[in-house]
């Protein structure tokens, strides 16, 4: 599927506007993982749900998998009373950081190494044991690339 540059840019701008407030909501989850604030939890769920859908439209599949994984985890916390331990909250924070990096540099998102994080968040969402992860190095970029993604016209 091809997406026009203006739509791509609008989706990315929308993602960025969601991630700032999500960082604050995430901090409440980090501070009190066993007793999450319902409003913060709902805000995080909606943020990742929106990013999951938009990233699918844009063809950003790694971003889609990460956002979808967090959406699933947070849905289980909200709906099933899943309690996140310290390690699980750290994974959630790492995935959020990777999502932020991908949104900051969307043209490079698909080339970022995210396989371990995708596996970890999917395992967490499915209630499986999470593989041991080395501390994730989230890439940082000065300013987003102005290159046009090949899926764009």
Low-confidence stretches: 142-153
| Fraction of residues in helix | 55-70%
Q: Distance between termini?
A: 10 Å
Question: How many beta-strand elements?
Answer: 0
> What is the makeup of the main sheet?
none
- Secondary structural class: mainly alpha
Helix count, per DSSP? 5
Kindly report the average pLDDT value: 84
Strand proportion? under 5%
- CA radius of gyration is 15 Å
Shape: globular
Order of helices and strands: HHHHH
Can you characterise this structure?
It is a single chain. The longest helix has 27 residues, at 5-31. This protein has 153 residues and is mainly alpha-helical. It has five helices and no strands. Helix 3 packs parallel to helix 5 (115-126) and helix 4 crosses helix 5 (115-126). The model is unreliable at 142-153 (pLDDT under 50). It has helices spanning 5-31, 38-58, 61-80, 86-104, 115-126. The radius of gyration is 15 Å and the shape is globular.
Compose a concise summary of this entry:
The protein is 65% helix and 0% strand. With 153 residues, the chain is an all-alpha fold.
Q: What are the salient characteristics of this protein?
A:
single chain; 153 residues; mainly alpha; 5 helices; 0% strand; globular
Question: How is the secondary structure organized here?
Answer:
Blueprint: H1 5-31, H2 38-58, H3 61-80, H4 86-104, H5 115-126
Helix pairs in contact: 1-2, 1-4, 2-3, 3-4, 3-5, 4-5
């Amino acid at each position: 599927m091809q997406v026009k540059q203006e739509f791509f840019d609008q989706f990315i701008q929308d993602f960025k506007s969601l991630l700032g407030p999500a960082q604050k909501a995430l901090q409440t989850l980090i501070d009190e993982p066993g007793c999450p604030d319902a409003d913060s939890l709902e805000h995080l769920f909606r943020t990742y749900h929106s990013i999951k859908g938009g990233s699918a439209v844009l063809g950003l599949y790694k971003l889609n998998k990460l956002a979808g994984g967090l959406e699933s985890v947070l849905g289980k916390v909200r709906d099933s009373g899943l309690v996140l331990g310290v390690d699980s909250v750290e994974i959630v924070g790492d995935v959020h950081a990777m999502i932020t990096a991908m949104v900051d540099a969307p043209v490079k998102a698909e080339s970022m190494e995210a396989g371990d994080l995708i596996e970890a968040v999917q395992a967490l969402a499915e209630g499986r044991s999470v593989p041991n992860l080395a501390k994730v190095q989230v890439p940082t970029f000065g300013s987003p690339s102005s290159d046009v993604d090949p899926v764009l016209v």
